[in-house]
# Entry
Amino acid sequence: MSTHDVAALTHEHVFLGANEARNERKVWLVIALTTTMMVVEIAAGHWFGSMALIADGWHMSTHAGAMLIAVLAYRYARQNATNPRFSFGTGKVGDLAGFTSAVVLVLIALLIGWESSLRFVEPVPISFDQAIMVAVIGLVVNLLSAWLLRDDHHHHHNGHSNHHGHRHDHHRGHGRDNNLRAAYLHVLADALTSVLAIIALLLGRYYGWLWADPMMGIVGAIVIARWSWGLMRDTGGVLLDRVPQDGQAEHKVREVLENDSDTITDLHIWQVGPGQYSVIVSLASSAPRSPGEYKAQLKELDHIAHTTVEVHSIGPTA
# Structure
């Protein structure tokens, strides 16, 4: 076999999302916004003697830290995309970062819930006008950040560039980017706490309902905990190679490959990058064909980025 023939049979294992570089730039911009707001809040808190402002400033620092995890994950995934030590590439690095961010989000929810519970027992004096002003500025920054980080699926493309029918170029999966989603949820959690804080402060300012502040804190903690649980469930499933939940991928593979003479005896499907899946399939066939022919059939399916086919010959069916 010639060197050219061998080269034609080899392929890369690059399964990054469609817009990793663009998403990384967006997150850097949001980190800059969040860090600036954090410094302003902490400085204003010391200036006005407001513990609430200082606390919110440090709270924003945890979100900036979580978003730093996101950008470092994008960079690491790109730098090691062709590293042969990663058997199926670095497409899951974003899910690992997303899972880590979800854990941080749970801790933030617990902290908000705990602080709110303490304030029910020991209410603290609130400088309403100044607190409302800073909460509104914080909300504007968070909404701008959320707009920057929204995951616009309609901009994603699914490009399958096959060279000699073997080399894969799958930089353009159009699945959900859990790393970007994690950064987005952190910003959204901050926006939610700002909205609830504004409502609580207005109720306290005009009706004297001081209990509204800790009550809104607990509501916010519950909502954030629910978001983080959804993120942990989805990213954890990817990290543990869970079969895609909707069952569509499995059904389509069986539909394409199984017929009167070919039966699937073993099938493994798992996600290797955003919207990209790897398939290992064993077939028992009474009229076996070459693995390449079965692979060619699977190429018709969207999102199947990597296939391994094993064929066993059996006697003709009755």
